[in-house]
Amino acid sequence: MSGIRRVVVGASGSPGSLRALRYARDLARAHEATLIPVLAWVPPGGDLADRRAPCGYLRRVWAEDAEKRLQEALAAAWGQIPADPPVQPMAERGEAGWILVTIADPGDLLVLGTGHRGMLAQMIYGRVSRYCLAHARCPVLVVPPPALAREISHGLLGWMFWHRPLTPDRFLQDQGEAAA
């Protein structure tokens, strides 16, 4: 058994994170480690809006929605949660970078997916990977985006691709079109 006891992976549901989920599963199997997919979420309007008008009901709805999005991302990546390696999914409230480095301990491996390649997109979306690289107490592995994502990441087509809702049906449909 290797020194890696857990593989923590960001699971936002983006094409980059789906690829990272698959890669992390393979790494966890190879190292006989526990796989921990993590979806970090923040309330609509941010924490400041939630503090101004707190509502327990809405907090429960947001948490349930995050759990649902995590399960959809796992289904899109794997079809079903694998029996090997052991998987412990987590949906945690907070900024993604902070949540990921807080969960990942020394002795773990933190796996992140990348995606958005345009200059503006890197400034906006690259924050999580930069934060994790700067603050993680464990090794960080960044998985490059799928080839299709690299090809269409610029322009209006790229914007429409990255900002569409990702569902398991949509992912399977896209996989069928890519194979044809």
Overall form? globular
| Helical content band | 40-55%
Total number of helices: 9
Major sheet: arrangement of strands = 3-2-1-4-5
Q: What is the gyration radius calculated from CA atoms?
A: 16 Å
Task: Extract low-pLDDT stretches.
Answer: none
Compute the number of strand runs. 5
Summarize the structure in words.
The protein has 180 residues and is an alpha/beta fold. It has nine helices and five strands, in the order βαβααβαβααβααα. A five-stranded parallel sheet has the order 3-2-1-4-5, sandwiched between helices. α1 (15-31) links the parallel β1 and β2 (34-41). α1 crosses α3 (56-78) and α4 runs parallel beside α6. It is globular. 33% of the residues are buried.
Describe the structure in brief.
The chain is of the alpha/beta class and about 180 residues long. The protein has helices at about 15-30, 45-50, 55-80, 95-105, 120-125, 125-135, 145-150, 155-160, 170-180, and strands spanning about 5-10, 35-40, 90-95, 110-115, 140-145. It has a five-stranded parallel sheet with strand order 3-2-1-4-5, with helices on both faces.
What is the strand and helix layout of this fold?
Layout: E1 6-10, H1 15-31, E2 34-41, H2 46-52, H3 56-78, E3 90-93, H4 96-103, E4 108-113, H5 119-125, H6 127-135, E5 140-143, H7 147-152, H8 155-162, H9 168-179
Parallel strand pairs: 1-2, 1-4, 2-3, 4-5
Helix pairs in contact: 1-3, 3-9, 4-6
Salient structural properties:
single chain; 180 residues; alpha/beta; five-stranded parallel β-sheet; 5 strands; 54% helix; globular
